[in-house]
Design goal:
The structure is a homotetramer.
Chain A (H helix, E strand, L loop, with lengths): L13 E6 L6 H12 L3 E7 L4 H10 L7 E2 L2 H10 L6 E4 L6 H10 L3 E4 L7 H14 L3 E3 L7 H11 L6 E10 L21 H4 L3 H18 L3 E9 L10 E8 L4 E7 L7 E9 L2 E6 L6 E5 L4 E4 L8 H5 L11 H21 L13 H19 L5 E2 L2
Parallel strand pairs in A: 1-2, 1-4, 2-3, 4-5, 5-6, 7-10
Antiparallel strand pairs in A: 7-11, 8-9, 8-15, 9-10, 11-12, 12-13, 13-14
Chain lengths: ~400, ~400, ~400, ~400
């Protein structure tokens, strides 16, 4: 493993432009820390506000040169595309309804992209965006960051190796308590209120926020596609305009069955993303709150606790950990793995060299499209008395 | 707590007749150990086989006097009802399809009953049996033994006390791996093969075996009723005649939503019965594999680990533990709690005295009826493209 | 496994006499429940008080026939030894300082013994008692009940099989909080005050109460003897007459090193008895608060979670569990295992038949003697500036 | 919390010089990642080898400008001290025996220091170095990185707030398996062989490597000093020249007692650093392998699970976490906290402004001195038949 050198195939760090994620933004800090951890990126420009004064203050706070602090995405993209030392890629971390426009514009200017999930708010836009990515051949990395955890990647590799044989049963839950207390919902005047406005956050808050993570996690580990869903989605806390829970029964294309449960209204629960994947010869269990443990329950043998860089670690997992066994890594390291993988892919694309195949497992625009389709199918099933609806 | 003296209200131990559960039977041993632990019962008679020789051998092995070893349930019941020192109650632990007949006969002869779950294989029989219990005023205890665990009872009491306020979300899973390996399914000639024959095991093996436990656990803790289900049930392992998984989305009469998932085909999983109940002011989490821990996650306060007889223990929970905090109790103690509670109720009925109200929380024939109705609703929804079906 | 039939080699249950452990006694209830669980015993007589009225009331409450309720141990033993249907064995559960006298008298009358730990308060008495047991050939079972847990027995067997190869390092802790709050120490007038009086509880309360359990657990699992200790023992809570913590460094006869730490003054801790045994090829970790899990960490392979009757279960462990994997057993079942094993040994002795060798692993008078010697060595080292002192 | 802006009091990032920790070095990567995470540092110069060719290659790989790649520490320090834009501080990550010389030289040239532990190999050097730090008033940060974990800091604050009242009992273990397999000890020709040479690694490998971490953790959380030790230290694996285990009994200046156990020879154990601190009104338990959980066991109330930014989080802990509750942080974030705190202290010193007091809890040269003294006391006690030896 050599995650640390800065000298990429390009002989330099990649130049990063950010759209959104100013100093006060939780997700903005995550992105910048992720970009820094392995030193593959240099933050060179950004649009942090449409208000020039606020943009200037925010840009300086995150270390941008005043000349490269912008208030218009299209102007920034144009300017950067004309510079010799212009940005190599843009990272988009704005409200969900703007991802599409910024991403399309960035692609048109030839930029690779790192984009927050959900990719878009509608299937139509997701399809257009995905097609555009395909046409341009540019790199599109969607930040389903839980796929960056070493033990999630170990799970994927164990499935790939056939250690579970044919997969039969999949359970996933993503349960949070962050929206359990309705008295803390933001006022329309507050910055985070966009999440509570379906026009901006999309057709389903809970699905956009965490449901797409759970969906992606299933697909990442199992490499199976969901054929159909029978779903129920709604608002458990009276008076809200947005969904705060969703449940679904799943049928996979290989015949496996599954269960899906997400909510942000489970009082006191912090961030319980858990998955159990059962195949003919074993079951895998992982929970995000103790991400350094993967439990493997083989048929007719004792259950095993797998850890990053512990015995039996497979190559993708090994590449995703920066440390010897027993030293937990967390959210930032997982997020950074997506950035570092994307850097490899982008540098390879630019240089015309071949990327390390292990770097190419980050979620992309197809994953984004399938996520948006899944949200749509859940809603349609729920609206149809929970009958089975195709995800295709 | 005074669980140990033998001197019940009757001044003696209760005289127990058993139907089924011979020496080789797992569940038979559980029943007998449960009956012995608190010394409220004396095993006096039983039908362990219809074959006289086998009945004799089995009866002697479990300590029955040769004169009180029977091969016919009706003859035993008649004989015992005519003895001065005849049995006070019968415990039924035969295949599911026989519960109804034996229970009805026992009630007709005036015996109180402890009966294995599921109560019956059909709604019709469940309704008749429940009505018969109501009419006779006899005690009917259904062995949903997980309700006997001290921390399950603590959960119920915390809900009763309003520590969660209004319940909003319920998740339950009961996941086992015991039927994951189809090559171990019994041959038709083997004793346990009745479970794989729908005629004997009922319309759904997985629901009868463990689904009714999960259903009962929800109702026991939350004291809510399930209004409707949207469900999927089937066989994930090709070639079997019986179900091995079921999933359902739930709507409760109070508006709460829920998720239900049971399977016996999850390779390597031992006995993962888990429940999470979320209300406005807190969430409870319990898992059967570490039954001495109940996690309480209050709104805006740190999560708590509750233990039997630890700080904050409520009366029903305290009564259900035989030991000081920190000394785990297990499956047998929970099962014994049902027996001990039933003994209190039966002795009270016989003596005309008033039972300790804390003893009266064991599952009864109404719980049995609702369990059978739930199984039926799950199957009907699954057959109706997983549309919502009323459980009433 | 056939733990359940009552028909021992003698064709009947063993007749049990109890000394101490009346209805209000925690440990008395444990003994009686342990005796009942597998139905190998019939409680026939006892001395529960030297006050006739209290003795009568207590005896009736635990189900003794009035004629066999005694107030004098020697008279009971004499009377029972003269009856055709007299007691087979006595169980001693009185304050520590009386174990010696009762045990010697019982042996002189030809009774087998089940005795609470610590065996005696002095080395001299322990040596005499052990020698007497040896001379008489009677069975002496010391209730180091934690050795009855299936996974403790599994650990012993894994060591015996050489799965750890040569043992190098041993850590044990037994940490409780029961005596953390000095304001709850009993008044001299209270019944439990004997524990706080060194004349009755012995030279060290914490060592007698729990230190001997920790010492015995090390020896039971590792089958190694402790050669020397360097120890510190004392009272962390001012004003007490009795010890409430002890620590020791250990050297084993095979060269292994160890660490020992016990206290009853750790506020809020329930019953944390934990052991870690490391050998050349693996480490075992067990904790009493989750007794159904044994973690095995082999060299160069993933850590394993072992469970009762799970994959890899060895014979002694299998014999010690009454249920299929995934159904936790607890304190009572472990305690009952000692009773059931002792029943096998006693019935074999009486009948002249050969006991199942798996039944013969219960702690005996030699274990008791070594425990008392260990307590003494810890005290002597502590008094000698913590220098190394031989345990021999 | 505002850990992310780069604009320190100096209006710029601090300029970092590194000594040791080239691209192949585990600890070098940790330092550089820690320096990058919060963007307070800019790596500008370093000595990575005394061999010019290797130094050049390594320097380029970590992004140094060729002009600022050095092969002599003293030359680098001189050159940097003469530059207008010279380094602000040096980070030392070389073998233990060289820390002293490099640190003294750096102080003489006026550089602040971040230094790996143990600070030095001898008490004499530790005293001189500590005195030099005091005299110069320069910042010295010793990388006892476990003190950077949010929940370790939370524990410290709970103690400070008196939530435990007077501390009575302390247990610490640091158990690893990395040196359990003697066949993997490096050959003298291998780079890591310096650890196995007492001349370079110091008087005790296990104490220098991990014992000083355990010692520091006790002091960091409890803010107590150890008065005396009775200890045993040695080599459990035959043939080694260096220690691989150490145990000690502890007496604190406030009267508390403690237990200390460290080893690197526990087969299969990864990195089990655990501490339990008990006071009159509560006990805290923390383990490094699940660092995001701190268990608090108050007197007469249920045990609590504390998490970063969960309910009850205190200011120092809050400042040490970059994310909302439920998203685990790991080793890198903890390490980065030391770097970020040191940056605050250094920028304050340089600018003459006042640092945030919460930033000033990183281990310093006094901690380093006390650590070296503790190692010495452990060895002396072990050599004196484990008698009590003063740590002063």
């Amino acid at each position: 493993m050599s995650l640390n050198p800065v000298i990429s195939m390009l002989g330099r760090r990649l130049r990063l432009a950010v759209i959104g994620g100013g100093p006060g933004s939780f997700i903005g800090a995550m992105h910048r820390q992720a970009a820094r951890l392995d030193n593959r990126y240099e933050l060179v420009t950004g649009v942090l506000s449409s208000n020039p004064e606020r943009a200037k203050k925010a840009g300086e706070e995150i270390g941008l040169h005043p000349d490269r602090i912008h208030v218009s995405v299209s102007k920034m993209l144009k300017a950067e595309s004309e510079r010799e030392d212009g940005a190599d890629l843009v990272a988009i971390m704005t409200p969900n309804d703007s991802h599409f426009e910024y991403a399309i514009t960035a692609l048109e200017h030839g930029f690779d992209i790192i984009c927050d999930k959900p990719m878009t708010n509608t299937i139509e836009k997701a399809e257009i965006l995905h097609q555009k990515v395909e046409e341009t051949g540019l790199i599109f990395c969607l930040t389903h960051n839980y796929t960056g955890y070493p033990m999630v990647r170990q799970a994927k590799e164990m499935v790939q190796e056939g250690q579970l044989d044919k997969i039969r049963l999949v359970q996933v839950e993503y349960v949070q308590g962050g929206k359990a207390d309705a008295s803390k919902d933001p006022l329309p005047s507050e910055k985070s209120s966009w999440r509570y406005d379906p026009a901006k956050s999309g057709p389903s808050l809970v699905m956009g926020d965490i449901g797409t993570h759970a969906h992606n996690l299933i697909r990442f580990i199992t490499e199976l596609e969901i054929e159909k869903v029978a779903a129920d989605i709604g608002t458990i806390i009276p008076g809200r305009k947005i969904d705060d829970y969703a449940g679904a029964l799943l049928k996979f294309t290989n015949g496996a069955r599954g269960n899906f449960w997400v909510t942000q209204a489970a009082t006191g629960v912090e961030n319980s993303l858990r998955i159990r994947v059962s195949g003919e010869t074993g079951t895998l269990e992982w929970e995000q709150e103790i991400p350094q443990r993967l439990v493997f329950k083989p048929l007719n043998a004792p259950a095993q606790i797998r850890t990053p860089n512990g015995a039996g670690t497979l190559p993708l997992s090994a590449r995703s950990s920066r440390i010897v066994a027993g030293h937990p890594e967390g959210f930032h390291e997982g997020f950074a793995n997506l950035y570092t993988d994307a850097a490899e892919a982008i540098a390879a694309r630019i240089s015309g060299k071949k990327a390390n195949p292990l770097a190419l497992h980050f979620p992309n625009s197809l994953d984004g499209l399938l996520g948006v389709r899944f949200v749509d199918a859940v809603i349609r099933s729920s609206n149809a008395d929970s009958k089975w609806i195709s995800c295709a």
